[in-house]
């Protein structure tokens, strides 16, 4: 149902994806996060996502020890494969053997075959490095991944969780080696985490790389369901992380969040915009990302069909006004540090007029 979902080109490629990507990290038993979905519940979410026009599914070989890929694969086997864009990742440990980790040619070649078997498909549309691997020469990694494209096992390449210099090096070395262009960057990006704007967004604009934000709701914090005066809502990632001390980017420590005035200022502006738009705070958080020029698609995670439908409501049919965007940008702006503070100050003209030209 194309009228329910907007489609965009992924970066500078000719690959069209729905602007809401369904993340499959919630599929399969995994003690890292609470409320994981079994196969039946996961398939129900996937079915509804496809009914709403979604065509972009993201997983990884590491998620739930490979169970996420298996669940996606058992669903994928019943679909028209060519209508779907399936993304997965390689980098982290996939076994006890010393070579079952990293971005070596050996591990990449082993991992893609394992992923294809679990996904029950002959190819993946987007294969992404899950993080940089400083132990392996970049030329080895790039060459191995390019060979997968030439072999037809992979259609496009992308990166996740890298720095600005790392992404630029990937881009420049790929050009000099005559290899396929990388088309996407998967990174944490939301109203509470805007660090990629210091350099990564500039690299992506210059090089035609589409950004696929993960954790757009910061583990549920940007849904508006948390109250500063109360404990974290039971059953959420944030509650689980706070209790178990398994703090991570997608599940911040709620005891620290309570003390952060800026977080609650952002949430208050979000709620005001949501009320004015007749939308939920979660939809505003996702729509804010979708109106950034470098964003191709936003990854959402859903534990229920209801959550999925609410998040998909950010896809199309409405926009946050320029005034509301400006207010959200201002309240969520990060304080610059050197050298970005110096560069920003100089470029603003406040310094230039007092310096020799």
From TrEMBL:
Residues 19-331 form the NADP-dependent oxidoreductase domain. GO terms for cellular component: cytosol. One of its GO terms (molecular function) is oxidoreductase activity. The keyword Oxidoreductase applies. It comes from the Eukaryota. The keyword Iron does not apply. CDD domains: AKR_AKR9C1. InterPro entries: AKR, AKR_Detox_Biosynth, NAD(P)_OxRdtase_dom_sf, NADP_OxRdtase_dom. Keywords: Oxidoreductase. Gene3D superfamilies: NADP-dependent oxidoreductase domain. Belongs to the aldo/keto reductase family. Aldo/keto reductase 2 subfamily. This is KCNAB1 protein. The lineage of its organism: Eukaryota, Metazoa, Chordata, Cephalochordata, Leptocardii. The gene is KCNAB1.
């Amino acid at each position: 149902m194309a009228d329910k979902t907007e489609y965009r080109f992924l970066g500078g490629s000719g690959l069209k994806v729905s602007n809401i990507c369904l993340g499959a990290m919630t599929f399969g038993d995994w003690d890292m996060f609470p409320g994981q979905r079994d196969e039946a519940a996961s398939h129900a979410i996937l079915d509804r996502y496809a009914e709403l026009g979604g065509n972009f599914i993201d997983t990884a070989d590491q998620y739930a020890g490979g169970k996420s890929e298996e669940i996606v694969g058992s669903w994928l086997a019943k679909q028209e494969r060519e209508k779907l864009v399936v993304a997965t990742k390689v980098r982290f440990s996939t076994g006890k053997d010393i070579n079952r980790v990293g971005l070596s040619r050996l591990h990449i070649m082993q991992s893609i075959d394992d992923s294809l078997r679990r996904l029950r498909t002959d190819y993946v549309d987007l294969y992404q490095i899950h993080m940089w691997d400083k132990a392996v020469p970049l030329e080895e990694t790039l060459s191995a991944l390019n060979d997968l494209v030439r072999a037809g096992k992979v259609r496009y390449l992308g990166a996740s969780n890298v720095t600005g210099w790392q992404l630029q090096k990937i881009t420049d070395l790929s050009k000099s080696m005559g290899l396929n262009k990388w088309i996407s960057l998967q990174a944490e990006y939301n109203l509470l985490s805007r660090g990629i704007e210091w350099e990564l967004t500039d690299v992506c604009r210059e090089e035609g790389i589409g950004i696929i934000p993960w954790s757009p709701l910061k583990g549920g914090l940007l849904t508006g369901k948390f109250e500063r005066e109360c404990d974290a809502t039971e059953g959420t990632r944030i509650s689980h992380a706070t209790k178990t001390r398994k703090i991570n980017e997608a599940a911040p420590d709620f005891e620290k969040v309570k003390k952060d005035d800026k977080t609650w200022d952002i949430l208050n502006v979000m709620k005001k915009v949501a009320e004015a738009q007749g939308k939920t705070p979660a939809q505003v958080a996702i729509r804010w990302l979708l109106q950034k020029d470098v964003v191709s698609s936003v990854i959402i995670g859903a534990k229920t069909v209801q959550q999925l439908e609410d998040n998909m409501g950010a896809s199309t049919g409405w926009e946050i006004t320029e005034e509301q965007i400006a207010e959200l940008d201002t309240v969520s702006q990060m304080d610059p540090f050197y050298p970005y503070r110096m560069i920003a100050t100089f470029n603003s003209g406040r310094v230039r007029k007092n310096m020799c030209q």
